[in-house]
Amino acid sequence: MKLELRGITKTFGSLVANDHIDLVVEPGQVHCLLGENGAGKSTLMNVLYGLYDPTEGEILIDGRPVVFKGPGDAMAAGIGMVHQHFMLIPVFTVVENVALGNEATKTAGFLDLDATRKKIRDISDQYGFQVDPDALVEDLPVGVQQRVEIIKALVRDAEILILDEPTAVLTPQETDELLEIIRQLKRDGKSIVFISHKLREVKEISDTITVIRRGKVVGSADPSASPTELATAMVGRAVSLSLDKAAAQPGEATFQVANLTVVDANGQHVVDDLSFEIAKGEVLAIAGVQGNGQTELTEAVLGLQEHASGSIKLDGVELLGKSVKDVLAAGVGFVPEDRKVDGLVGSFSIAENLILDLYNKPPFAKGLGMNPAEIARNAEAKVEEFDVRTPSISTPVGTLSGGNQQKVVLARELSRPLRLFIASQPTRGLDVGSIEFVHKRVIAERDHGTPVMIVSTELDEVVELADRIAVLYRGKLIGIVPADTSRDVLGLMMAGVPAEEAGEQAALHGVSGENRVPGGNEAPGGKHV
């Protein structure tokens, strides 16, 4: 099936999200849309999927103009879409989610879930999905939930599959599995529109690349183009793919964690007797595969874990047992791993989100009310300083791209004097331009003399930002090592091998680890992008 977009334009008031975009996707082709957050990629695909009406332009399938009044029309025409944020009902089973909106019925109008269940099993067998039709979606790992979304499209006989930032929430291992699924779909003649800003994946999977910047197509690229060339085309300026930072000048260790233990609802020690400290002016990066106690550690520091014991001290003051409000008042800045759920109020404006923890303090509070003029002044200044792409400070923050949402969180957390800065998964789902910006702000806070704790599952990011690296495995501290520790050693530690033994094993096998990240984002030739 051939897809063609001609002159697609989409405006929201004065904002031009898509500006006369032309695009052709050939049958059996992986066509990548590359662009930074807010470039208009998702808007364009929402137009194609019938979620938005185009302001101008037309859509053609196999040379015939089509008009989609909703996703149902797009699906009927053979187009399926897997959104960045999955459209699944957690308390439904896989088969119920797949059947929803496309219900097969028996005689007398009863649902025929057996027919849908068979289709799921057939597709799972064909592509090696290993999805149980009767599993509850809320019990499935994120990577499997994404496969359910793909199955939903394939059950409806999709010939063109739109994948919107499909790896934003996946582990490196899940990403590799998804790329193999895409290759198999391509071999079966499906056309894939792959929306991403991750250069390694784009280079690895695409047949052709269209670059979109600020709503316009600015050119096309060959997958053989270098990461630097792709990054420059995407952002519109030279982008450094490595962080230029001075050596740390650590001072007194003012943040101290001692014998910290967190117990979950099942009585398991998700954080197990953890002890470490962070000095002023240094970055300690917490490395490990997701689910090894990192989330519970940061929540314990912030006062969100009820069943925590041990000690967490900042400037000699005990934080454990204090409320979130008290912890923030002690000078802790916190960027949560899920900005949508824990970092922002989506329906609130940008201006309101920038004062969530200061709304009741001068200059934003005035007597018993608020000070709108000062709130607006603060927002205008922070939007400019942090380069938040938005038509207005009154725009609901939930309508911004992921990168711009993260900038709002950073602007709020870094806009007051801090005694400790914690950022969990600070660049998850961000493009290279936003990543560069976030990394520079983190190091600037370090250089200001603040103790910084970074939690990241991206090993490249850990190595890039850290002055020291602490590795967690099943809630235990495997070891704390220098930032120049080889990636092979770090990979072994992430699998539970103690630091000294990991070093011995790496030396025994004669590997340096310079060009390999276990399960990480690595480009051909060993360049990490």
UniProtKB/TrEMBL annotation:
Keyword DNA-binding: no
InterPro entries: AAA+_ATPase, ABC_carbohydrate_import_ATPase, ABC_transporter-like_ATP-bd, ABC_transporter-like_CS, P-loop_NTPase
Region annotation (Disordered) ranges: 509-529
Any one Pfam family match given in the protein's UniProt record, by short name: ABC_tran
CDD domains reported for this sequence: ABC_Carb_Monos_I, ABC_Carb_Monos_II
GO-annotated molecular function: ATP binding
SUPFAM superfamilies: P-loop containing nucleoside triphosphate hydrolases
Domain ABC transporter residues, every copy: 3-239, 255-499
Keyword annotations: ATP-binding, Nucleotide-binding, Sugar transport, Transport
Protein name: Simple sugar transport system ATP-binding protein
Organism: Arthrobacter russicus
